[in-house]
What does this fold into?
Amino acid sequence: MDFAKALHNLWQTTGVANFTWGQAVMIVISLVLIYLAIRKKYEPLLLLTIGFGGILANIPVADISGMNGFLGQIYQVGIATGIFPLLIFMGVGAMTDFGPLIANPKTALLGAAAQFGIFTTLLGALALTEWLGFNFSLKDAASIGIIGGADGPTAIFLASRLSPRLLGAIAVAAYSYMALVPIIQPPIMRLFTTRQERMIEMKQLRHVTKREKILFPLVVLGLCILLLPQATPLIGSLMFGNLVRESGVVERLNKALQGSMTNIVTILLGLTVGSKLVADQFLRVETIGILLLGLFAFAIGTGTGVLLAKLMNRLSREPINPLIGAAGVSAVPMAARVVNRVGVENNENNHLLMFAMGPNVAGVIGSAVAAGVLLSFF
It folds into this structure.
């Protein structure tokens, strides 16, 4: 009898006895993310770790993502506090050259225009709540809207502050659409431009001095302090990383920010975001709404960037290829590379990468500013 009871107790602790269909579905979804990372090379640094974290989170009995689980503890330290996204922004700042934006500052408007999708989607989330019975609060709508900025760390930072329960779905949507930039953006770019516009060649950018590059992060941070203090955690982290890069006197710190620190935080960030892909939290109708709204936000951001670039081309003395407006979403540098690829497809001499980097890095700043604006409402 005791032996039979021991066998029964052992059986009750196995994964086979405790698996739910929801956990099985989430493990399959996590494996799809890993497949996209390895096979398709879509944002592999994050989709691989998010996918694996999703598998760990759905292991029965182990409770790895719970308060006492190791991923749950890391989540409380790094995500709930907002520390991981800020550390990632330091690394992004250290890896970013703001020279193209400084050389052509009017392209900052394109980075701002691409954030239009954020606020449009906020209204869309509220509309789903009003007319289709979804349960999105104003804070939830703000967190979902930020997906349109195509900036994963900003999306995680804002969602962790406003809508922790939606963090998994928002993070997966944000990084998935960042990974799918080469698929989503080109049709939208072609829809809003003519072949003649896509063939426009732009004049070479002026040389940007070292002094300008050093002053830029300090000036941007100063403006943020004066005008939008709520955005200073993100903007301050970004500009600190960039100042470390451009100062030229702390190369050890620069290498650490670009390399070891960013790599370690990326691993922990991806695993802990994946830990939020728990079946009972993710397999909801709300998740479908978030994914659809995220795609809508991304499409709107791309379209508004292109349309503003078209307008700027008509008003400017110097030619502006409207394609660079699509790079205003802050998927750096993938969006700029997609712009360059579409430009070359239409004119083999039309290399737009450096021109697109202006609005691309402006989009990073723009999404952080948008997050600050949304935070200031609550």
Q: What stands out?
A: The chain has 21 helices and no strands. The CA atoms of residues 8 and 348 lie 70 Å apart.
